[in-house]
Amino acid sequence: MQNVMNPVGGDNFQEKGDKRMRLSLGPHHPSTHGVLQVIVDLEGETVVRCDPVPGYLHRGTEKLAENKYYTQIIPLTDRLDYLSPFNNNLSYTMAVEKLVGIEVPERAQWIRLILSELQRIASHLIWFGTHVMDIGAITPFLWAARDRETIMDIFEMCSGARLTLSYTRIGGLMSDVPPGFNEKVHEFTELFHKALKDYNKVVSKNPIFMSRTQGVGVITAEQAIQYGLTGPSLRGSGVEWDLRKHEPYMYYDQLDFEIPLGSTGDSYDRYLVRMEEMEQSNRIIQQALAKLPSKGPVKADDPKIVLPPKELSMSRAEEMQRHFYQVIHGFPAPVGECYFGLEGPKGELGFYIISDGSPRPYRLKIRAPSYVNLQALPLMTEGRMIADVITCIGTIDIVLGEVDR
Amino acid sequence: MFSLALFDVVNATEARVNAPEEPVIWFLQTFVTLFIIMNVVMVIMAYQTWAERKVMALAQQRFGPMRTGPIGLLQPIADAVKLLNKEYIVPRDADKTLFFFAPIIAFIPALAAFAVIPWGDATGEGLFGGWIRPIIANLNMGILYLLALSSIGVYGIVMSGYTSGNKYATLGSIRSSAQVVSYELTMGLGLMGTLIMAGSLNLNDVVIAQQNTMWYIIPQFFGFIVYAISGIAETNRNPFDLPEAESELVAGYHLEYGAMHFGMVYLGEYINMNVIAATVATLYLGGWAAPASFLEFIPGPIWLFLKFAFFLFIYYWIRVTLPRFRYDQLMGFCWKVLFPIALANVAITAVFKYLGITFGWWG
Predict the structure, then answer these.
(1) What separation in angstroms does the CA of A158 have from each of A81, A185, A189, A228, B241?
(2) What residues are paired with A47 via a beta bridge?
(3) A45 and B59 in contact by Cβ < 8 A?
């Protein structure tokens, strides 16, 4: 077995007599955001080498998916980035929809869009709380958790679950949103606008916070592109790339919003980008609420893929047979390959499906933004202090469920 | 002027307390006083943890402890019972003897510092014919004693870190030794202005001097700021809690401690906070004296308690609001910001005192 504290091929500095200390941050460390292990070589407090070791939360999602019907994979995606399960559901569902070529009704699309943006805010709120908490301020986390709770309530209203939503279905949504949804979301957008001002007041201009984040974890635009960063981590370096604008899906081309950009690519810029993104998401939700059609189906009309309505399958023989057949046999997808990526809260979340014509994917590859973004950690931290490692883990906003899959 | 102050220090060995007529009686009286004051301090310390949790809860829009007794008032007792019931674990790599004694070394000086804090006019006789006196030891070099004890307390922290046999704990104690040594300097310099103005190292004399003029927080505002900030750093509290930075070093120097030894570390830290708060109250906020003459019917101990409770509240407030410094920024802040301010404050105060310049009606 490979010893992580003394990796094969790694330089054995202890024999060389260097005055270094090898410190294993994690996998059970309060601020590695889950079970990330970071092996750092320290000279005093300075980090000379930083080596992230993912894999402690590996559950073999991609392999599991090969043995499940397309519909059965949706619950697996909940467990990837558990801070934004709806976006995972959505990205996977849209990839399958692209593969089988099914048209999703307009109302379902709008609801998906609203929930997706709400989920982005929820994910960013947790990032905000934990990032600031890693730097030492404990109160903003509690405030962020309070506002996230409202979003959780909205999701609970819709899907009955708070974390493992599984709310999307191939061709639409599990069910329509309950009455009172619009009012509740509207109430949240108003409340959140005020809350965001509070966050900015407490944290954004705090001199200690600024000195802790400015100039820390700098990634230049070229480096960001080379490392394949996406999402706010990329935009913090000043690269204008947002799939919602550049490869619009759903109805993002009909909405008016801006893409915040950073300039220097340090942690503070990424912080500002995410804070502004929350504000923009709030704007998107408000616009989308106005455009949400009040009536209409939320499931595509495709009997081969979409399950019949529950009340019909419980009362009519034809629908009941269809229900059983679909649950037991799934639906075959056409032979081919397909990739779909959407702009998740952490970056481009993509699903690549290879289909051999059976009702199960031949191969499912998940392009997880956290995993790709984590690569930049050594680049950001080497030569800096140990406290900066913590700041940098926070600033790339990783979720270990997604890193390890 | 400096020579004058030094003269006072030299004279400090000459006890100014009313000489005891009957040494045995005097000893017993001191013991009774000691017993009462130490118990009061311990109770304050216990409820301070409760108060801190309540203040934090207030800022964070939660309730804080609520289940143990009415509004969680029995929480400190529950905590203590829990800690006492836990197993004392020594890590394999630890130096067993020093590991055992380190928290005690941190704890005792913190508690001992309360001996020189006056809870009332120390020149008076006290209650019940001297059986309960407002101060345990009316030392003429009280401030020096305080500074000395706070320096000893650091050894506990450094030792507990080094002897734990844990890398995080070692890092924590490295940070602690650098930080506390630096901030001790600014802390002492911050105090100097007060000493020059009062012309005495006796804490009771400082209080009386403030009664005759005014609270030193106004003429010694910069000294107060320097002392308060250094005090927060000295007690390893946010935003200077680097030795035990939870998000970086997990728990820092006391990472390996459990059971009542952890309790001892914890107690030491909180009592240190109390000492800083009590000295701030004594040196800058008028100590046991009432702020106005018509309020004098309220006894001294209550005034002292109110003043230091107020400063503790500021402690908590800072803790819930501010993020943490980085190690290099912390040292930079000490040597580049606080140190020059403290030095300038001492120089200016000294010049004013020497020339006899007074601002307005205080002097």
Answers:
(1) 20, 11, 17, 35, 43
(2) A42
(3) no
Residue B20 confidence (pLDDT) above 70 = no
CATH homologous superfamily of A62-404: Cytochrome-c3 Hydrogenase, chain B (1.10.645.10)
Nearest to A382 by CA among A51, A49, A159, A116: A49
Residues A145-180 as b/e (b if ≥16 CB within 10 A, e otherwise) read bebbebbbebbeebbeeeeebbbbbbbbbbebbeee
The tokens describing A82, both together, are 């558990």
Would you call B322 and A135 a contact, using CB atoms and an 8 Å cutoff?
A: no
Residues ≥6 apart with Cβ < 8 Å to A345: A81, A83, A84, A87, A119, A120, A123, A124, A127, A231, A397
Domains of chain A, residue spans: 62-404
Residue B363 has pLDDT above 60, yes or no: no
The full length of chain B comes to: 363
Q: How would DSSP label each residue in B175-209?
A: HHHHHHHHHHHHHHHHHHHHHHHHT-S-HHHHHHH
The verdict on A142 touching B (C-beta cutoff 8 Å) is yes
Greater confidence (B341 vs B246) lies with: B341
Q: Which residues in chain A are closer than 8 Å to B239, comparing Cβ atoms? A: 136, 208
Q: Could B320 and A388 be called an inter-chain contact, meaning their C-beta atoms sit closer than 8 Å?
A: no
Residue-by-residue DSSP string for B217-284: TTTTHHHHHHHHHHHHHHTT-TTS-GGG-HHHHTTGGGTT--HHHHHHHHHHHHHHHHHHHHHHHHHH
Residue A25: φ, ψ to 5°:
-85, 110
Higher-confidence residue: A337 or B28?
A337
Contacts of A132 in chain B (CB under 8 A): 323
The yes-or-no verdict on residue A352 having pLDDT over 90 is yes
Contact list in A for residue B329 (CB cut-off 8 A) is 208, 211-212
Three-state SS at B70: helix
- Cα–Cα distance list, B87 to A80, B82, B241, B328 (Å): 39, 10, 27, 37
Q: Report the Cα–Cα distance between both ends of chain B, in Å, rounded.
A: 15
Does B241 sit within 8 Å of A136, measured CB to CB? yes
What is this structure's pTM? 0.85
Rounded to whole angstroms, how far apart are CA atoms A70 and A306? 12
Report which of B269, B254, B263 is spatially closest to residue B86, judged by C-alpha positions: B263
CA distance A375 to chain B (A): 20
Mean pLDDT of chain A: 86
On chain B, the residues whose CB falls within 8 A of the CB of A208 are: 239, 322-325, 329
Whether A324 has a pLDDT exceeding 60, the answer reads yes
| Distance linking the first and last C-alpha atoms of chain A | 22
> According to the model, what pLDDT value does residue B127 have?
67
Closest CA to A112 of A245, A280, A291: A291
The two structure tokens encoding residue B81: 């019972």
Specify the DSSP class assigned to residue A243. Answer: H
Q: Which two three-digit tokens encode residue B179?
A: 């930080």
A34 — alpha (psi -120 to 50), left (phi > 0) or beta?
left
Contact criterion met (CB below 8 Å) for A235 and A228: no
Q: Which residue from B61, B247, B328 is facing A136, i.e. has the nearest CB?
A: B247
Interatomic CA distance for residues B51 and B44, integer angstroms:
10
Summarize the confidence of residues A312-323 as an average pLDDT.
89
